[in-house]
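task queued by scheduler; priority normal; single chain, no ligands, no partner chains; default sampling; output format set to structure tokens
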Amino acid sequence: MVRTDDAPPDTVERLWYLMTEGERARCLRLVRDVDRRTFAITRALVRRSLSRYGPTAPADWHFVTNQHQCPFVDPVQAGRPPLQFNLSHTHGLVALAVTRGHRVGVDVERVSRVVDLAVADRHFAPAEVRDLRRLPAEEQAVAFFEYWTLKEAYIKARGMGLALPLGAFAFTVQPPLAPAIAFVPGFDDLPSRWQFWQAWPTPRHRLSLAIEREGHDLAIALDDVPLGTLLP
């Protein structure tokens, strides 16, 4: 993860060389300076992090997207087992997950932002809405992000985004136990295939991770990458 609150004004210019022509065009279409800086940081974090695990220079990575516009490392560069990644960002923080041979999804959200719980009523599974509404009113906003980040991480790991109906699967969140997932009858997946993990990378941000695995849970490490290490 990278904290972005203190990104210098010339961040985009300093990271320009790491972006493709398409990425530069996307960056320039962003209206706010803070969004352009965050975009440049995400590209640098992905490229430099992947180069820790594969024999490709940061500027030389190529990416492809599936039919749902989810990005992947070009199979020519991914190796075996294939190098995979997923990215999420919110105000003040960028999170990146990298694995070899395991589908992965990550989501991070700033829990202090205003929440409309009607979103949960419309999109969460009935069991999640029920558990959320049972909580004291002052706890519901933070609990919303517990569920939201888990659901986002899962659909991103599946590589399908919102093509997967959010109400077709439900999480049970009962710390200190790991989050557990359940599917409606007929859903094309098995709970045993997935490992879920959550963290507070800062007091303001909730992060959730979904990893496809077989058998035992995988080891997970959360690294705080200094922004200065990404800047030339």
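post-processing summary
- Residues 2-229 form a domain with the Ribosomal Protein L22; Chain A fold (CATH 3.90.470.20).
- The chain has seven helices and ten strands.
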